[in-house]
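Supplementary Methods S3. Complex input for the 4'-deoxy-4'-aminopyridoxal-5'-phosphate-bound model.
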Amino acid sequence: MTSKTLEDFLEAGIRELKEQGLFNEVDPLESPNGPQITLNGKEMINLSSNNYLGLATDERLKAKAIQAIETDGVGAGAVRSINGTLQLHLRLEEKLAAFKHTEAALAYQSGFNANVAAIPAVMDRNDAILSDELNHASIIDGCRLSRAKIIPYKHSDMDDLREKAKEATEQYGKVMVITDGVFSMDGDVAKLPEIVEIAEAFDLITYVDDAHGSGVLGEGAGTVKHFNLSDRIDMQMGTLSKAIGVVGGYVAGRQSLIEWLKVRSRPFLFSTSLTPGDVAATIEALDILTTSKDLQTRLWENARYFQEGLRAIGFDTGKTETPITPCIIGDEKETQQFSQRLMEEGIYAKSIVFPTVPRGTGRVRNMPIAAHTRDMLDEALAKYKTIGKELNVI
Ligand code: PMP
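Predicted complex, serialized as structure tokens:
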């Protein structure tokens, strides 16, 4: 048998993906990622960013980042556990703990890194992890790295979780239940009160990835706070790249957990820490979020307005409970065509189809953000209506 070369492997793989229409190529933006963007010379209304509060281009954050670069430089120079810990990092972690209503918090270089850091730091091959089947890819990778037995449960199905929790606790050492706080494809919220009850009945470790809930639910503090469960969830993970508008991730919880992560989580130990500019901008974002609810109010007003507008035209927005707004078209080809037509008409809203979501549930996913004006949303709704009629989907 002759072994395949890398070139053979890549060529065959790319060809196959292209044949299946799954080879994603992206054009770079010619503008910042704000409520409007410029792409291929064309100005478009942007309904595809996670910049929920519009902070990614906020002048106050930019000023703090520039100031920190002037005083502390562009890089932290080392990993946290050698000498890449600046005063700024500690200030950020104090703010994060206060924001999440926990004893302590630890910052990572991204939300993805936070998950692949924290899960394997506490779980090992003798353990089991009960994981919602729709959990984010970084949770799945974190679980795999831990070598624990991964037991998926049906999406938000509490009977399935209870049954699997009972079985797992009889067979394994530690057992964790892990869930997204807000699910990014449908915008539905995890049933945290029931999850906590099951966890307490079976002594499970509780872990919530609140990438899409922080800054959005619970008056900004996230899904756990929304349900008033701050002292009953063991590990709260979040990202600094969505509502916060910058980059980075974190885990918040008890002091002992954070102490352990500092000595046992590999991205903390072996990957250079967040840059001073990013940290300073993040601290400013947290200050804004905790002192004023204006941006959240605007986000929710825009989200409700856009969702009601879509439903009034005759579209199905699924089971969203958050600003994440799926517009469900169904058929994969029609969905892609719909998104393509929106793009041609100056509305940037991406289609999401199988295998990312189940077959026959293709949708255009929209993220109305605080920085959209009513005029922008009205224009997008008008285009939805015209194209919906043109393609016979309403
Ligand atoms: N968890 C969830 C649920 C997410 O949606 C994302 C971002 N797509 C992440 C984690 C990763 O966060 P980051 O982009 O900061 O790496």
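The chain has a mean pLDDT of 97. The radius of gyration is 22 Å.
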